[in-house]
Amino acid sequence: MEELLRLVPVLSSDKAEFLSMATQYFTELNSNFVPQRDWEANYFQRLQDGTNLCARWIVVDERRIGFSVYGVENHRFLPRTIGCIYEFYVLPSFRRSGIGMQAAMSTIKELRKCSPAKIQLEVLRGNESAQKFWNSLGFRKVSERFVLDGGDK
């Protein structure tokens, strides 16, 4: 299967298909997700405009079966960079087949080309399957993020 999997750039002409799949992704993460006007207007465009962002389709046999959004950030305080996996999604019908593992390893390989000091990602609390998936690739939990209630208003 490895020779069939490719990470392919998401183009501006892919907006409708990407936003449809991204909506499915965010709805799986939060069943109450409803794309707000600012999300619809800005999310895709910010991915396209980001100089240190890469949005890639996960393609198997010429079929788009997921996406990976990753990039490199400057460390807040030190003169080094950090690789970040911001979004990673595989359609449910393709999970547990090894495709996600191959796509994640390809994403990590791409990030390593930038020589970051580390590669990090976030997993939502309660998403046990994602935690197990990323643990199996060598990631480990090092912190917890707290968000102020009502802080999204």
Give me the secondary-structure topology.
Layout lengths: L4 E5 L5 H15 L7 H13 L3 E8 L2 E12 L6 E10 L8 H14 L5 E4 L6 H9 L17
Parallel strand pairs: 4-5
Antiparallel strand pairs: 1-2, 2-3, 3-4
Description:
This protein has helices at residues 15-29, 37-49, 99-112, 128-136; strands at 5-9, 53-60, 63-74, 81-90, 118-121. The chain is of the alpha+beta class. It has a single domain, classed as Aminopeptidase (3-Layer(aba) Sandwich), CATH 3.40.630.30. A five-stranded mixed sheet has the order 1-2-3-4-5, with helices on both faces. The longest helix has 15 residues, at 15-29. 16% of the residues are buried.
* Gap from first CA to last CA: 45 Å
> What is the architecture at the second tier of CATH?
3-Layer(aba) Sandwich
Strand content: 25-35%
State the helical fraction.
25-40%
List descriptors.
alpha+beta, 25% strand, 4 helices, Aminopeptidase, globular, five-stranded mixed beta sheet, 153 residues
In short:
By secondary structure, the protein is of the alpha+beta class. 33% of the residues lie in helices and 25% in strands. The protein has a single domain, classed as Aminopeptidase.
